Every structure is written in C-alpha cells, then in structure tokens.
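Archive record
______________

***
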Amino acid sequence: MKSFIIVLITCMLVALNLSATNYHDVMKQNITKLIKSNSIEEINQIAATFERIANAEKEEWLPRYYSAYAHARATHFMSDTDSIDVSLDKAQAYINELLKSNEDESEVHVLQALVYSLRITSASRGYKYSSLSNKSLDRAMQLNAENPRIYYCRGNNVFNTPKMFGGGATKAEKLFTTANEKFESEKQENELWPSWGLYHNTQMLKKCKESN
C-alpha cells in the first residue's frame, strides 16, 4: 500500500512538472511570435492563445497581461478609431482583472498607461487620456522606478504633446535616453517577464535627435 502511494505521488509530481514545463514553453513561444509579428491576423491569433492559457492557468497573471498587450499592439496596424477602440476595450477587460489581482505590479500600470495613450486618436481625446496615462505611470514609478517601460511610455506622451503644453522632442529625448539606460541595466524576473519597448525606444530616441 505504501509503495502504491509513493508511486502515485511520484506520478502526480511528474505530471505537474510536465504541465509547468508546457506552460513555460507555450508562453515563451507565443511571446516571441508576438514581438516579431507584423500581421494583425497573427497578433489576434496570439491574443486568443493567451486567452486560452489564461482560462486554463487562472493562478498565472502573465497570460492575461500578454493577451491585453497583444490587443494593444494590434492597434498599430489599424487606422479607424472604432476598430482601435474595440481592440483596446478587449485589452482593458484584462487589465481590469490584473488591477484587482496584481495592483502592486509596476508592469500592469505601465500597460494601463499604454492603453490610455493609444486611445488618443484625435485632439479632443488628448487631455483626458494623456492625463490618465501619466497618472498610471506615476503609480508604476512608485512601485518600481527602474522599470524602463515607464520612461519609454512617458517619452511617447511628451513627444506627442505640443510644445505649448510642455511637450516636444527636446523634452522627450531626455526620457527616451533614461529609458535606454534602464533597458541596458534591466534584469528580468524570468524569461516570460515583460521586456517590450527597447526597439521602439531606440527608434524614438533617434527621431528626437534628428528633430533637435
């Protein structure tokens, strides 16, 4: 009887280990695909995959995070406001869940800030959503001032704000420079941890230097 119990426990541990390995591998594979993808169809498929993982792994927060990020990233390939809003609504639904379960995680607030800034599809939306975005970045800063995505997102906000309201390339360049330094020294929690922003930060820094 004791031998049977030992074998049973061993099998359960092996099964749990395989499940954990499969989760890690599937997540890593889809994160890599998401970062490289330039196809809205593929990005939507990846978002759906993360949604399925989130439903299966309810204790893990990263699948919901990446599903939200995928829906946000998809808007870069959209031109009409209605489509952008629909995609960002999907992202926001997951962020709302994350803000309840992971309120003290800096990355969640940065992602919220990104979604707010992507809502700015017209001048009439500028003040409302830039204010909300900056408020989320302030919270992210309180939680982890070393997070490079804070400075990258704030740099974007400043770059897209008219000079008469305190924005422009000169002020944004300082933020992108700081972000670059933070990216260089960033230490990831693990392979699945958010790492986006470096490529576009480098592009924006170059753009600022050319404008000044």
